[in-house]
Amino acid sequence: MKRILVTGGSGFIGxxxxxxxxxxxxxxxxxxxxxxxxxQNVIHLLDNKNFELIRHDITMPFFAEVxxxxxxxxxxxxxxxxxxxxxxxxxxxxxSINMLGLAKRVxxxxxxxxxxxxxxxxxxxxxxxxxxxxxxxxGPRSCYDEGKRCAETLFTSYRxxxxxxIKIARIFNTYGPRMSVNDGRVVSNFAVQAIQNKxxxxxxxxxQTRSFMYIDDLVEGLVRMMNTPDxxxxxxxxxNPNEFSIxxxxxxxxxxxxxxxxxxxxxxxxxxxxxxKPDISLALNTLNGWKPRVxxxxxxxxxxxxxxxxxxx
Length: 313
Ligand code: NAD
Ligand code: UDP
Hints:
Structural class: alpha/beta
Radius of gyration: 19 Å
Oligomer: single chain
Bound molecules: nicotinamide-adenine-dinucleotide, uridine-5'-diphosphate
Order of helices and strands: EHEEEHHEHEEHEEEHEEHEHH
Low-confidence stretches: none
CATH architecture of the domain at 3-175 and 214-241 and 277-293: 3-Layer(aba) Sandwich
C-alpha cells in the first residue's frame, strides 16, 4: 500500500484518479481548494477509511508523509483559469514549487499534469513532444499556458539539481462524467445545451479541431506513467489522436441526445488554437502497453447520461 497525494483531487480528473488509486488499495490524500472542483465529486469516497479530503490551497506549503504526488491542482477550463489570471499563474508556479519541495523532503515521486496548451496554437501538426510550441506570452490564455510551461521548467530543474523522481504528462482534451456543468468547456457546454434543446454555441466557424480522450484512458495513462522506471521523466503526450472539428462534435452530440438544438455562431476567442492532435508514439512505446481505447461515441454516451442526471435532479 502506498500513500498518495492528489492535488486538485476533487476536480473532474482528480476525482476519477482518487477513485482508481483507492480501488488499487492505496491510501489517498486529496487536497483541493474547491475553486473549480467540488466535494460532490468525491462524496462517495468519504466513507473509505483510506481516503482523506483536505481543504487546502497549494500556493501555500503543505506537509504530509507520502510516497507519490499527482499534481493536478489548477483550473483547466478557459473561463475558470481566466477568472483570476494571477492566481492561475501562482497555482502553477508557487503550487509546483510547494509540491516539489514536499517531494524533495519526503523522497516522493511526483507527476505534473501538464497540458497540450504548452504547444499554444501549434504550427506543427500533429504535435510531438519535441515541438516547442507557439504560445502568446501576453494573451488571454497565457496565464494557463505559461504557468504550465514554467511548471515543466521547475520540475526539470528539481530533477537536475536535486535528483527528484519526476514525471511530466502533457494531457490533451479530456472529457467524461464529473466535468462541471458550467465550466464552459466544449463537451460539457454542447452536452448540456443539447439535452436542454438550447442553442449550441459554436465559436468561430467550428472548423477548428480538437482530439478528445475519455477520462478512463487518461487515468490509465497517468497511473502507468507514475509506475514507469525513474529514468522515464517525460514530457509524454497522453491523448487520443482521433481528431474532430468542433462542428462534427456538435452534430454527434445532437444525434446522441435526439436534440432539437440549433447551431449558433459566436466570435472565436483570441488565440484559440486552430488545430490540436497529439503524436502519441512516445506514450505507446513507454507506458507499458497503454493506448487510448474509448472512441468518441462510446465516451460521449456515459458523459451525456451524467449530465442528464445532474440536470434532472
Ligand atoms: P478541474 O478544474 O475540474 O480540476 C482542477 C482542480 O484543482 C479543482 O478541483 C480545483 O478546485 C483545484 N484547484 C485549483 N487551484 C487550486 C489551488 N490553488 N489549490 C488547490 N486546489 C486547486 O480541471 P480538470 O480537467 O480536472 O484538470 C485537472 C488537471 O489536469 C489540471 O492541472 C489541468 O491543467 C490538467 N489538464 C486537464 C485537461 C482536460 O482536458 N481536462 C487537459 C490538459 C491538462
Ligand atoms: N468551443 C465552442 N463552443 C463552446 C465552448 C468551446 O465552440 O461553447 C470551442 C472553443 O472555442 C475551442 C474548442 O471548442 O475551439 C475547445 O474548447 P475548450 O474550452 O473545451 O478547450 P481548449 O480550447 O482549451 O482546448
